[in-house]
Amino acid sequence: MWTKAQQAAIDIKKGSILVSAAAGSGKTAVLVERIIKKITDNDNPVDVDLLLVMTFTRAAAASMKEKIYNALLKEMEKHETNTVEFKRLKEQSVLLASAKIMTTDSFCLSIIRENIDKIDIDPAFCVADESEISLLKADTMDELLESEYEAANKDFMELSDAFANSKGDKSIVEFIEKLYRFAVSKPWPLEWLDSLNESDDKWQEYIYAQIMKSVDSVLQDIDEMIDICNEEEGPTAYLDNVLEERSSIGGIKKAADIFELSKKLNLISFDKLKAAKGGDKDLRERAKAIRDKYKDNISKLAQDYDFDKDRVLLEEQSEKAKIRAVVDLTKKYISLFNEKKREKNLVDFSDIEHLALGILVDENKNPTKVAEAYKKEFSEIYIDEYQDSNYLQEAIVNAIEKNNVFMVGDVKQSIYGFRQASPKLFMEKYKTFKGFDGMDDEDAKKVVLSKNFRSRKNVLDGANVLFKKIMKEDIGGIDYDDDAALYLGASFEVGDKEYVSELMLTDVGSIEDDTSAIELEARAIAKRIKELKKELKVDGGRDLKYSDIVILVRASIGESIAKVLNDENIPAYAENNKGYFQTFEVRKILAILAAIDNPYSDVDLTAFLNSEIVGMTDLELANIVSDYRKKQNIEKSKKIRMMDAIIFEESEGSIEEATKKKIRKALEFLDEYGKKSTYMNIQALLQDIYNKTDFLNITAAMPGGQVRKANLMLLISKAATFGNSGYSGLYNFIRYIAKLKDFDNDFGEAGILSENDDIVRIMTIHKSKGLEFPVCFLANANRSFNKTDLKQGIVIDNDFGLGVQYVDSEHNIKDSSIKQNVIKYKLGTELMGEELRVLYVALTRAMEKMIISGTCKDVKKALETNKENPRFLDIRSCNSYLDLILLSFDRIHFDLKLYDYKTLLDEEKLTQKEVRDLHKVFEGSDIKKYDELKKRLDYTYPHSVNVDLKTKFSVSEIKRMSQSEEFEIKQNKEKTGGVNNAGERGNAYHKLMQRLHYENIENFKNRLEFVKSEMALLKNASYRELINPDDIVKFLDTKLGEIFIKYHKNLKRENQFIMGISAREANMGDSDETVLIQGVIDAYIYTEDSMILVDYKTDNVKDAETLINRYKVQLELYKKSLEMSTGKNVSEIFIYSFALGKEIRLYE
Asked: What pLDDT does residue 35 have?
C-alpha cells in the first residue's frame, strides 16, 4: 500500500524529520498513518493527547481529527470488544477530543490561557476580528501622525518632505503599515527594527554575484553565436567581432568589486558587424538576434548598475536620518497600537504568538520552566505545511522541541510570501538534514515523497518538462532536479493522446472591434470546453461534467470569464474573494446609510434619491437642479447642495407633482431613520430598512438576485461584528466600512454555490491549493506579474534592511538610490520565485488534463522565444506565466492549439444571421405582429454617436486623430553604443529641462559649464549620452531662455492636468457628451503682465510650419486647460525646437 519513502516517513522513530512531499504525494495520509502507528505501537504506545499537531488552517485541523478518528474506528474493527487493544483504541478515540490538533494560533492561545498568570493581561481578553483591527489601526495611525506633525521632529519632517506627495502622507502610512507587518512576523520585532539602523556591505556582495551570473548568461549566448558562425554555411565574417566581444565581456569577471565591475561594464562597446556575404540566411538572422539580445543585456546592466563610490557614500549619509525616522515611527506605532488594544482588552493573531513566545522564553531567549514542561509533555510535534512557517512560529517550536519535530511540506508550494512565510526555513533543513538511508539514529533526517497519486502521467510530464528548465535554486528556491520531480503513483484507465497537456494561444492582434483580450480568450476556452464535453472521458470512463472543470486565474477576472461562458450556454461561477464593496447592491445600501447620516453629502444623497426606495429618475434629478438654479438665480459654475435643492423644490419649485411626492417620501425616510440611527444598533437599523422598504426582495428580483440578496445579508453580519467592536453609531459604521476598503479587507461576495451544482468553477490559484479537478484550465497566463511593491520610495528586505530613495530637497531631486535598486532587484528575484511556485500549484491541480491558456499579439513571434536550455537571464526577464511557459514547453508533452478573432467570431456571426432571418419566420403570419416585430428589430438607438465615444483621452490621442496624415519622427542616429530611438531622446531632453536650476546659472563662468553640471545630476547614464549640451545652451541664449532665467521663480514645469469638455470642443465628434482630457504641460511662466505656455520638441524636422501643423491642436488644449485651472489668460504659446535650435510662436 505504501511506497518505500512513505513507509520510511511513517516508521522512523528517532530524531527530527523533514518530509519533502511533492504535490499529490499523500502527505496527509502519511501523517495520519504515522500518528495511528504511534498510538498503536505495541512496545511504546503514545496517547494521542501527548502529540502536538499544528496545521495551517482550522479546516485542516478538523479534517485531520476526523481522519484520525476514522482510522481509529478501522483499527477497532480488527479487535474484539473485550480485548486490551480495543479498550486502548476506544480510550484514544475519547482523548482525541482534547488532543492538541490545531492551528499554530490556537496552540499559542492555549499556552496563554494555561499560563495567564505569567503575563500582564486581563484574563477576559478577546481575540479581535480582522475588520475591528483595521479600524483600530487607522485610529492609531491618525493619532501618531498628528502628534508627529505637532512635535515637528527634524528626522520626521525630512521624511515627510521627502515622501509625502499629492496624496498627502499616504505613502508614509502605507510604508509604516508594511514595516509593521514585517516586524511582527519576527520573534523580537523591536530588536529587528533597531537592526535596520545598522548598515553593512552585504548587498554589494550579493549584487556582485548576481551580475556575474548575468555575465555568465551573456557568455553562454556568445558561445551559442560562435557555434552558429562555425557551422557550415554559417556567417564566419561575424567571428572577429564576436570573439573580441567575448574577450572584453569575459574580462568583467576579473573585477575585484562592484565599482571596478561597473567601470568595466561601461567600457564595453559593440562595433558594426562585418558584412557576411552568402551562406545560410536563417543562420545569419539567428546569429544577429542572439547578438542583439546580449548587447541589450550588457547595456541594461551598465545602465542599471552604474556604481560610483562617492555616490554610494553620499546616499548612505542621506538615508540614515530617513531610516532612523521610519524605524522610530514604526516603534511608536507598535507601542500606541498595543496601548489601544490593551484599553479595549483585545489581542490580534500577532499578539497571540508573541505572548506565547514571551511565556516560553526569558529575556535572554532561553527556554522557561513552562517551555521545559511542554518539552516533557509532547512525545512528538507535527507541523503540516511547514513551507509556510515564519521565523516567529519557528522560535515558538524551537522553545518546546527536543529533536522530535515531524515537519511536512513542499517548498515548491510556498505561496504565502505576502503573509511573511519564509521558504528559507524549509530549505535550510532540506540542505542540512541527511537523506534517510535506513539508519534510524538521533540525527535529523529528510524523506522525499515524489510519487504523485493525483494525476495522469501526461499531466506530470507536462509539469516536469517546464519546471526542470525554469525552476532553479536562485530563482524559485529549489533546483527542480530528479528528487523534486513528480513521478506517477496513480493508475488510470488506458488513454493517451486526448489527455496530453495543452497550450492554447489566442491571437488578439487580429481583433477588429471593441472585444477585449480576456473576452476573446474566454470564447476560446468556451469552445474548448464544448469540444471536451464531447470527446473526453474521466474517472474511469464516464462523460465529462461541467463540475469536473476548474478555471484558475491569478487575479480577479473570473466574472468576465464566467459572463462569456454563460453567454455560450456553459454554466459557470466565479468565486470572488474581492469586490464585495463594489457590488451594485452593497454600494447602494451604503450610500443610503451615508445619506441618513449626512444628507448634505451630495453623492450619497443622489444615490439614495436614485435608488429603488425613492425611485427618482436621472431626468427628474436634472430637472430639480435646473429649476433650483433658475429660481435662485445661481450660475452654472457655482456648486449647489442637492439637499438645499430638494427642500426648496418640494415647497416652492415648479417641477412636476409626481417628483415632489418622491421628494416628500425621501425627506420623511431621512428624518425617520436619522432619528432611529441615534438609538438603534446598526444591525437592527439595516434590518428595519430591509423590512420597511422591501429592499431585499427588490434586489433579489434582479439578475443574479440570490447572490445580491446574500450580499445584503452579509452586511448585517458585518454590522453585528462592528457592534461587538466597542465602536457604535452610524458615522462610525460608515467610517469602519471605509477603513475596510482602505486596508483591503474586502471579503468577497457571498457564496451560494453547492458542492453538487454541475457548473464550471472559476477560482484563484491560491484558493485551489489542496484541491484537485479532473480538468484544469489556467487562464489569462499572459497577465503581467504584479511589481507594485518594487516601485515604492522605500523598500524592505529581510537580509539587507531598508532601501531608501535618494532625495535632495534643496535641488528638488528624487531618484532611486543604488542600494534601493539592488534591493529591488533582489525583491524582483524573490517575486519571480514566488510566481514560479504559484505556477507549480496551478499545474498540479489537474487529475486528467491540464490546459494553459493565454493571449498574445503575435503568435509566431511569441513561439520564437522557446529554448531547449533557458539561461539565467532568459528566466529572470520573464514577466508572466505565459513568458515562462513559452520559454520552456515542448511539442512532445504539450499540444499547441491556436485561436484568432475570425475563427472565434464565426459562430457568433451565424447566430446574428439567424436573428436577421427572423423576419422570414413571421412572413405570412399576422401582419400586425410582423410589423411590430420588424419595428423592434429595425430600431436605431438615437444616441449611437455616443456609443463608441471613450470617456477619457490623452492630448496625444486627440492630436493624432486630428492629423490628416501620420507624421513619422525620424530616429536620431547618434551613436552611443547602439541606436537610440527618438522617444528616449525626447525623454532625456524633457527630464533635463524639468530639472534645470536656473537660479544657479550665475555661479558658472559660462552657460556650457552650467549645462554640463546640470547634466551630471541625471542618474540615467543613457540620458546623459543622448543630450547634446550645446542644444541646451542655444535655448538659454534665446529670448525665451532669457525669460526663463529672469522669471525662474514663476516657472512651473511638468504640470499634469485633467479637464472635462464636450466631445465637440475636443474635435471628437458631433456630441455634447463630456469627455475627460488628460495631459502634461511642459512649462508655463508668469511674467509681469502675461502668462506664457511652452512645449519642448525634439522631432527631427526641417521647418517650423511642420511642428505648428503637428502640435497646434495639442497646444490649444493645453491653453484651454491652463486658463480653466488658473483663471488667467495665456498671452503667448511657444514651441521650442531643439532640432531647429529656435523658439516658434504659435500665433504671430
From this structure: 94
Relative to beta strand 806-808, strand 813-815 is: antiparallel
How far is it, in rounded angstroms, from Cα 189 to Cα 136? 20
pLDDT in tens, 398-421: 999 999 999 999 999 999 888 888
> Band of the pLDDT at 919, cuts 50, 70, 90?
very low
Rounded to whole angstroms, the Cα distance separating 184 from 163 reads: 24
Query: Do the Cβ atoms of 439 and 862 come closer than 8 Å?
Result: no
**What tens digit of pLDDT does each residue of 204-245 get?**
999 999 999 999 999 999 999 999 999 999 999 999 999 999
Alpha carbons 452 and 931: distance in angstroms, whole number: 65
> Which are the contacts of 789, defined by CB distance < 8 A and separation ≥ 6?
795, 827, 831
pTM, full prediction: 0.73
User: Do the Cβ atoms of 475 and 836 come closer than 8 Å?
Assistant: yes
Q: How far is the C-alpha of 410 from the C-alpha of 23, rounded, in Å?
A: 8
Grid cell of 417 as nine digits: 510570501
Q: Name beta bridge partners: 18.
A: 407, 446
Give the β-pairing of 846-856 and 501-507: parallel
Cβ(846)–Cβ(774) under 8 Å? Answer: yes
Please tell me the total number of residues recorded for the chain in this structure.
1148
Q: What is the pLDDT of residue 245?
A: 94
- Rounded CA separation 563/706 (Å): 16
DSSP secondary structure string, 1082-1147? Answer: EEEEE-SS-EEEEEEE----S-HHHHHHHHHHHHHHHHHHHHHHHSS---EEEEEETTTTEEEES-
Q: How far apart are CA 805 and CA 350, in angstroms?
A: 30
pLDDT at 255 over 70: yes
**CB-based contacts of 350: which residues, under 8 Å, 6+ apart?**
184, 185
Grid cell 558594426 in the structure block, residue:
272
d(CA 673, CA 666): 11
H-helix or E-strand spanning residue 333: helix 309-343
Integer CA distances (angstroms), 599 to 31, 491, 632, 667, in order: 60, 67, 21, 9
What's the rounded Cα separation, in Å, for the pair 20 and 385? 10
Mean pLDDT of 731-752: 67
- Which is it for the CA torsion 405, 409, 414, 419, positive or negative? negative
Q: Say if CB 813 and CB 1014 are below 8 A apart.
A: no
Are the CB atoms for 51 and 27 separated by under 8 Å?
A: no
Task: Decide if 804 contacts 323 (C-beta within 8 A).
Answer: yes
H helix runs in 774-900, sequence order = 818-843, 859-863, 872-876, 881-888
**Dmax over Cα atoms in the chain, in whole Å?**
112
842: left (phi over 0), alpha (psi -120 to 50) or beta: alpha
602-611 long-range Cβ contacts below 8 angstroms, 24+ apart: 602/641, 602/642, 602/643, 605/642, 605/643, 606/642, 608/666, 608/670, 609/642, 609/646, 609/662, 609/666
Residue 834 class from Cβ within 10 Å (0-12 exposed, 13-18 middle, 19+ buried)?
buried
- Classify strands 952-954 and 1051-1062 as parallel, antiparallel or unpaired: unpaired
Examine the pLDDT at 647 and tell me if it is beyond 50.
yes
Q: Is the dihedral of CA 208, 214, 219, 220 positive or negative?
A: positive
3-state SS class at 474? coil
pLDDT tens digit sequence for 699-714 = 888 776 777 888 888 8
What is the Cα–Cα distance from 773 to 755, expressed in whole angstroms?
13
Nearest to 356 by CA among 732, 103, 588: 103
Is 70 exceeded by the pLDDT of residue 76? yes
Q: What CA–CA distance (Å, rounded) separates 841 from 824?
A: 25
C-alpha cell at 31: 501523517
